[in-house]
Amino acid sequence: MAAPKKGRSAGAQSRPWRSLALILIAIVALTGGMFASGHTTPRLGIDLAGGTSITLEAVNEPGQPNAINKTNMATAVDIMNRRVNGLGVSEAEVQTQGDRNIIVNIPRGTNSKEARDQVGTTAKLYFRPVLQREASTTGASPSPGTSPSGSPSPSASSGAKGKATPGSASPTASATSQGRAVTDGLKADATPSATGAASAKPSGSAKPSASASPTPSGGAGDATGKLAAAYTALDCAKPDQRANAGKGAKPGDPTVACGKDGKTWSKFLLGPVAVDGTEVKKAQAVFDTQGGAGWQVQMTFNDSGTKKFADITGQLSQKQTPQNEFAIVLDDEVVSHPYVQTSITGGSAEISGSFTQEDAQSLSNMLSYGALPLTFKEASVTTVTAALGGEQLHAGLIAGAIGLALVVIYLLLFYRGLSVIAVPSLLVSAILTYVIMALLGPTIGFALNLPAVCGAIVAIGITADSFIVFFERIRDEIREGRSLRPAVERAWPRARRTILVSDFVSFLAAAVLFIVTVGKVQGFAFTLGLTTLLDVVVVFLFTKPLMTILARRKFYANGHKWSGLDPKALGAKPPLRRTRRPARPVDPKEA
Asked: 150: which of 146, 325, 417, 437 fits an S-S bond (Cβ 3.0–4.6 Å)?
């Protein structure tokens, strides 16, 4: 059997159904995954689904008149972006505007309130020793058997408590009222439940606290009379008092603050800052599979933070509850207040307790990204309604439908029967694009915005261009006098090179645009790059095999005038015929 000539693939001619089956299986699998995930439509960005747009204005801190600069603004954008991403808010946009403004766009359908709270949390993150703590009297009351200074439960947003052990030390089991004891680090007190469970006392060397009085005592005696009076009058259950608690306090001064313990607000009298949040090198939520501690937060400090943390934990470990606790304060609100049993000198610690995964991730997010290099205030908050987004989406879909209709009309007029190949190819490309976009929403947080819709519309032309290149190569071969089946196989290698080069240039442009731009322009670049890759897949696995199959049909093979491959209409040359070489004289010696 003669081997196929160069430029022709016997496998490509005899097995086109394999390629069609492969792309069909891919479509079925992706579509099944889309329905199994429950996300049957692409996620929409803020400009299509609506959402909240927050403008934050940078403010110079006292004594730092030159704090607003390009470097600090870029750092603040990075921290805010990490905050909202840490909360799972997808497609949130954080970017600078001018010299001192940061714009944060949070799409509708996400936890925008919590994201807004953390993005707007622009004060420094501090570690302060607790001098006094008690539950506020207004609103929810402590459970029976719980003193005002009793230890509340962990909370995702604030008041979360836990244990921190040096390095990766494991807790030591012990028959205590808490169910386990830890001989070093920080540990959460047991939680008095809403049904009236008795409060537990910390184990180890820490002594139980005496009943707290409405006025500061013990360590609070060092506070000024004005601060003591402010603590006494503070009721954290009242939103207006909660919002103003500790405002304007300097790091070196004691202050008052509020923190939410479960459903109950507690008030705190806090000492001067012991460790700055910028000295937290890393914090992450992990699940303890060996020690049985469940979800915990691991944090490490830089060199200066390591020394300060060792000093404060060493001091607090000698005191009794609540004065053996330190508060993690973010934007003048206590987000966690674990207590100390021993000095932690290794520069790393673990905070654990009755954490859920959400609790641990929220606390680690605050520890990692709580310290902004600047102070910000909300200049404006704008809500984009879903109705406006719906109108923009409707307009985008109409534009896409018009573009697709024009391409189809062009194919019908100029390529006639070949449009039977081009139109299904466009349909396959559209199905793959839609299904993949729907899957990318829950997978990587991709959200379809208006520029991304524009990218999809542009991709219609790019995909149609690939078909046209292939069809024109086939027509060129027919003009040279070849029949259809050889023309298809000879045209494919040349068309393939052109298509790959063209798509590579489009993909490279999309990649560069995605890297060097921010915000919504990235949506355009991402969609353009995705559809360019899909164009290659569709042309190789669908368009070419389908053309190979149809080339065997008489309608196309005989060059029907409506097939788009009529040799006469194309001005084809007479059929190529092989000329016989003249007979070579036989050498008498060879005979």
From this structure: 146
